Amino acid sequence: MKIISIVGARPQFIKSAIISKLLRKYHNEVIIHTGQHYNKELSDIFFNQLKIPEPNYNLGVGSGSHGYQTGNMLIKIEEVMIKEKPDFVIIYGDTNSTVSAILASSKLKIPSGHVEAGLRNFDLAIPEEINRIVTDHLATFLFAPTNTAIVNLRNEGLIDNVFLTGDVMFDMLLQNIEIANEKSNILNELNLKEKEYILATIHRPENTDIPHNLSNIFNAFKSSKEKIVIPLHPRTIKELKRNSINIKSFHNLTITKPKGYLDFLKLLINAKKVITDSGGIQKEAYLLKIPCITIYDSTSWVETVKDGWNILVKAEKGEIVNAINSFNPNGKQGNYFGDGNSSIKIVELINKFLNSRI
Question: How many CB atoms lie within 10 A of CB 293?
């Protein structure tokens, strides 16, 4: 049967890599790339490294306001769906690509599955939260990564066709740790030693687009005695320039372009700590037992905070520096994210549904 997979941002490329490989054993998969992430470092390198099939359609929507992105994606995704007439649509995560895809598929009455359903920050000021809620209430099947996600869905009255599958990103991590260690030469390229640096990523608008927050974060980095490696997101670069923050003068910062999956994974595996505002990196740090400092007010991966391996701090210099100096967890971790076979379970559920319709 024909299945459309819709991706548009870095985390979706990673999730789709493992599911796409399995899907193609049974079905004709058509990949739509919305173009939400579109440059080489945030898109092309992931398709090449992870051997994701080349998208059948690249919509080229690019950056813009939420309304611009969502509206343009909706129009273009609907056109492709009408042309391709798929039997099923797979949707990933919580981006504008996600909500556009679910709006198109639900209005066309095409069955759909949401991978990573049920995550919540409980803050409607976060655009991704709106995308998650809309997507979960419209999708046919909800593939939840954790028990917490199941409870969140149940509390919103979503019970039918909800499945605890585990986390697809955990599958990818398990399959690629050894590959990253063997193939990536990033530590040598950046002259880094294992466990002697902190890895940082900052990209959320709440941190980059508010000058006070952006200045506080990078002043905290500058004040730290630690070596900090930061692959800079295009949004962060733009806002640093706009606010005349010259981080090239920060002697303890190693600044790089965004890295592909294997290089970034190698950096993460060997970091002594992580500072981030990315949900996916919080979870990956937890799974690798790397202390994580999250510059954000909330997280959808509450398990990482519960077990003490992730601490939430505000974009204030003192809080960040204090966390860098004193946050050193060593407690036990729970088995929250599945057994490494989440992608298999998801594809089996899709197959069972599609076979029932023959």
Answer: 23
**Active site (annotated) includes residue 66:** no
Cβ neighbours of residue 72 closer than 8 Å, sequence gap 6 or more: 59, 61, 64
**Which secondary structure element, helix H or strand E, spans residue 280, and what is its range?**
helix 279-287
- Return d(Cα 149, Cα 155) in angstroms, integer: 10
> To the nearest whole percent, how much of the chain has pLDDT over 90?
87
Angle, alpha carbons 172-177-179 (nearest 5°): 100
pTM: 0.94
Which 8-state DSSP code applies to residue 95?
Answer: S
Condensed to tens digits (0 to 9), the pLDDT of residues 288-298 reads: 999 999 999 99
How far is CA 256 from each of CA 219, 237, 249, 264, 358, rounded to the nearest angstrom?
18, 11, 14, 11, 51
In this model, does residue 39 exceed pLDDT 80?
no
Helix (H), strand (E) at residue 213:
helix 211-223
Query: What's the pLDDT score for residue 100?
Result: 97
Contact 310, 292 (CB under 8 A): yes
Please name the helix (run of DSSP H) or strand (run of DSSP E) that holds residue 47, with its range, or none: helix 45-49
Choices 3.40.50.2000, 3.40.50.300, 3.100.10.20, 2.60.260.20: CATH for 2-167+338-356: 3.40.50.2000
**Catalytic residue (one of 37, 203, 212, 233):** 203
